[in-house]
Specification:
The chain has about 450 residues and is an alpha/beta fold. It contains 12 helices and 20 strands. The strands form 3 sheets. Strands 4, 13, 14, 15, 16, 17, 18, 19 and 20 form a 9-stranded mixed beta sheet that branches. It has an 8-stranded parallel β-barrel with strand order 5-6-7-8-9-10-11-12, surrounded by 5 helices.
Length: about 450
Amino acid sequence: MTIAVLPEVATDAEDLSLWPASTALLPHGGLAVGGVSLTEVADRFDTPAYVLDEGEVRGRCRTYREAFPEADVLYAAKAFLSRAVVRWVREEGLGLDVCSAGELELAVTAGFPPERIVLHGNAKSPRDLGAALRLGVGRIVIDGPSEIARIAAAVGPQGHQKVRVVPGVSAGGHDEIRTGTDDQKFGLSLTDGGAQHAITRILSQPQLELTGLHCHIGSQITEVKPYLVALRRMVGLMARIRDAHGIVLPELDMGGGHGIAYRPGEPALDLTALARRLRAELIEGCAAARLAVPRLAVEPGRAVVGPAGVALYRVLAVKHTGEKVFVAVDGGMSDNPRPALYGVRYAPRLIGRRSTAGPRTATVVGRHCEAGDILAADVHLPGDIRPGDLLAVPVAGAYQLSMASGYNLVGRPAVIAVHEGSARVLVRRETLDDFRSRDIGG
């Protein structure tokens, strides 16, 4: 559906540094993304809504392919998945990393080649493993010792499945999104020998082919060093596997967790530096260990779709409580639980009208019955912010709708794709009819 084909408008690079590259300033305080006015998107499709810039997603996929030309780049579906995103990722030459039968089956039914898919997760259900084997996924990542026998039994004596194993390696990130430590639920411990024992067991199963190691150290990591530390440990483990079992693993997946900026001035991972230094460290480490260099893989999710998304909210109320100003909007923790879960901060912006009022510190809150329902704490908004105003929040493409809930039966927002002046619905808004149709009791 075409909303508007807009003329090119000069952008303010500093002011719009967090926004998709296609973002343009419009007269009277408006913004356009992908050639489409965000105000018109809100008016036509209602709010809350998520706007996803197709060109930005595709461009970020290409950036990864260019940075890692000799590696496999797999999009981490948990960040956000829809049939359109599956198609974009496939057409841009990326693989796919999934964590459930739901993600897997959506991808395959949308046309994604299963052999380019990796399934991982710390607690795979029988349905997850059954779907993976039935559809023929390329790799299953073994995260715990019990999975070895389960997968081998499901494959059967005449079957064959390529697998990886995930040793635990810690580095960086918030406690809730750090995934490689010995006191976390993810991975097999190197310190107590769990990873080494699991590898021995996998190699004893003829129907399982161990193709490599899979390493995920956490999320929102903005420095290269933790990845280099993790890579050295993985190369060391590969050398020990070679010495103990006489096999050289051909694959090394360094996972994702690539950090992005959510507010002006925040650091982001330097992708070019990461690619260059990972490759150099891998070559040097393998030479020192007398190992053939394995094929590298990385798994960006947030770094692909996060900066491509914009959340749109309508202001419902403005409350002055002492020195505090609360700006309540028509969404909240049901469509973005991340601030409540691990304290992330955003930079909302008034759009649709140009204010001459000076800035005032305000806290943007949601509509839910929770004190922790805060979308953006202590941000600068115009002093005359009022009900009916439209707020746009950049860097909203990852881990928002994918983590949304049915709290208060508000309903999850729609996802609107914008590209070259056109807008279309990717995921429709959840409605009361959806809730009623699922509630079959009486």
